[in-house]
Amino acid sequence: MAAFTELVFSGVQPTGNLHLGNYLGAVKRFVEMQDRDAQCLYCVVDLHAITVWQDPEALRGQIREVTAAFLAAGIDPKRSIVFNQSQVPQHAELAWVFNCVARLGWLNRMTQFKEKAGKDRENASIGLYDYPVLMAADILAYRATHVPVGEDQKQHLELTRDIAQKFNTDFSGSITAHGHGDAFFPITEPLIGGPAARVMSLRDGTKKMSKSDPSDNARINLTDDADAIAQKIRRAKTDPEPLPSEVAGLKERPEADNLVGIYAALAGITREDVLRDFGGAQFSTFKPALADLAVTSLAPIAGEMRRLTADPGHIDAVLADGGARAETIAAQTLDAVKDIVGFVRRGPSLQAVR
Ligand code: TRP
């Protein structure tokens, strides 16, 4: 592997219905990260998906669909490493070690578990509870320095940093003795933000755009064709006022704010830039402009996804290649972790230099 200054890792769950929120909040940013001086790894996190029930055949299709979306959006599987998590056993292996580093009290504070488990917490899977520890293992198996994620993953990234820190402290003597200096795991930086860190529902600007919204008009699916995209934007909820000329004027106007944010993110400009052009305009002017922009940016991706999903053999080959490349990096981390923790392992063991 060439020497890069940064290692970028991120993951997307293969749980179906990828939409504009996933694209602007994650995939589009993954594409842009490829231009940094960084090795990028993009992972379809199938181990995370099964923390809640998944129909096996549907899951297999969804893993291929997310991979197709990555490729269709412009992730280059030669430059970046594209793979699915279950092909690299080191994720689960490192998660076990981290299970013994993370504290119950830390996990008990995770708000996403509380939301996802709901009232029937006793009936949630142990995997759902342990989800953030596996996520820390995903990131730290590659000793990733940067992780682009949505706002909702901030707490999980903090847990990742806490686990890295505690591992580095608990094993500091052994880390030094094995020649890794005074820290083995990096304290990973989350990269949160951009104009569309949170894309909201087209029917209700106070709710996140979601794959599970009962109204299909609330979201733009990455598989929607040009007509569907344009129609959903035309029907998007708005208020009666024209657009303001300053960003401050979007406060208390969630639907207007959302559409301006989507425009900015698609065009790669700021909300300020959008309002410089559209301040004072009615939605009857702004919506067609947004629809045009959305169609030109998204319809080709949908088309390319259809082409790619028609050839699952090609997608599986991309994942196999990515999985093998990912494993070479993760295996090095796990060898070192085993030495640091004090396990005896097969292969040329690096004895402590002390
Ligand atoms: N939990 C993330 C989400 O739902 C997905 C994920 C799993 C992830 N492992 C990761 C994201 C590691 C970033 C890094 O969005």
Helix and strand string, N-terminal first? EHEHHEHHHHEHHEHHHHH
Our count of helices gives: 14
Q: Largest beta sheet, briefly?
A: 3 strands, parallel
CATH architecture of the largest domain: 3-Layer(aba) Sandwich
Ranges where pLDDT stays below 50 over 5 or more residues in a row are none
Mean pLDDT: 95
Strand order of the largest sheet: 1-2-3
The geometry reads as globular
- Kindly report the name of the CATH homologous superfamily of the largest domain: HUPs
Query: CA-to-CA gap between the ends?
Result: 30 Å
For the CA atoms, what is the radius of gyration? 22 Å
Query: In what range is the share of β-strand residues?
Result: 5-15%
The CATH class assignment of the largest domain is: Alpha Beta
- DSSP strand tally: 5
Enumerate the distinct ligands: tryptophan
> What structural class do the secondary elements suggest?
mainly alpha
Helicity, as a percent range:
40-55%
EC number: 6.1.1.2
GO molecular function: ATP binding; tryptophan-tRNA ligase activity
Subunit structure: Homodimer.
Catalytic activity: tRNA(Trp) + L-tryptophan + ATP = L-tryptophyl-tRNA(Trp) + AMP + diphosphate + H(+)
